[in-house]
Amino acid sequence: MEVWFTEDQTKHLRIGCRVREVLFSGQSPFQKVAVLDTVEFGRMLTLDNVIQTNIKDEFVYHEMITHVGLNTHPNPKKVLVIGGGDGGAVREIVKHKGIEKVVHVEIDQMVIDVAKKFFPELSSGFEDPRVEILVDDGIKHVKENKGVYDMIIVDSTDPVGPAVGLFGEEFYRSVFDALTEDGLFVAQTESPFFNSSLITQVTTTISGIYPLNRLFWAVVPTYPGGYWTFTMGSKKHDPLTVELNQGKIAALKTKWYSPEVHRSAFVLQPFVKELLPHK
């Protein structure tokens, strides 16, 4: 008998993966959590039947949501990660030797526990002594910590359920206040093919709060459309003009991110440029 996992990526689009085995299935206070051993992508984490990450393509997303910002800021020492309970973002951050503290705020303990058990490749950074894990609400955390972080990464799920508040103006203003005077933040901001109105909304909001607002992109095969965007809000440092330390980046041992990719990720196609606010 064939077993397939199917995700409704939009009301009119589905993606299906053949499953060897269901490794875990549980209901947390926030969402349904499952780990599947798929034929095409290996171990896969899903939340409420939506693909979050998998062993085959995870490195693209995690390298881009972290290293672009970390190499834009000249000396990031304290970093906050909101969401991303799988640990992939934390794993990438701790590759940077100059980082002194990583605070990881994840609302769902079950996601952290599942990552530690089934995704050691992603969750390895949790063991770094510089990492502090807080099971808490990220929105509340940024409100309570002003002027603390050099960089904040919003590694959220889609804008439904517990993640809705992570895409609003009040939250982005709280993130601004939680950053140091030259801090910056990066958030995942969905697909320009299927979430164009969200990208317009988010970039318009951020451009009204932060002196610099940049959209960049990467290819993540299991996310809707494969083309995925990230948005940076920065108080001072511009990822387009920063001088990249080639030796530092080479030492990171990445699979996707490089100095050339850093620059090219900000080259937007005309249809994507049309989604951005024009000042």
Overview features:
PABS, Spermidine Synthase, Chain: A, domain 2, five-stranded antiparallel beta sheet, alpha/beta, 28% helix, Rossmann fold, globular, polyamine biosynthesis, 279 residues
Kindly describe this structure.
- The chain has two domains: 4-54, Spermidine synthase, tetramerisation domain (Spermidine Synthase, Chain: A, domain 2, Roll), CATH 2.30.140; 58-273, Rossmann fold, CATH 3.40.50.150.
- It is 28% helix and 32% strand.
- It has ten helices and twelve strands.
- The strands form two sheets. Strands 8-7-6-9-10-12-11 form a seven-stranded mixed β-sheet, sandwiched between helices.
- Helix 5 packs across helix 6 (169-178).
- The longest helix has 13 residues, at 58-70.
- The N and C termini lie far apart (57 Å).
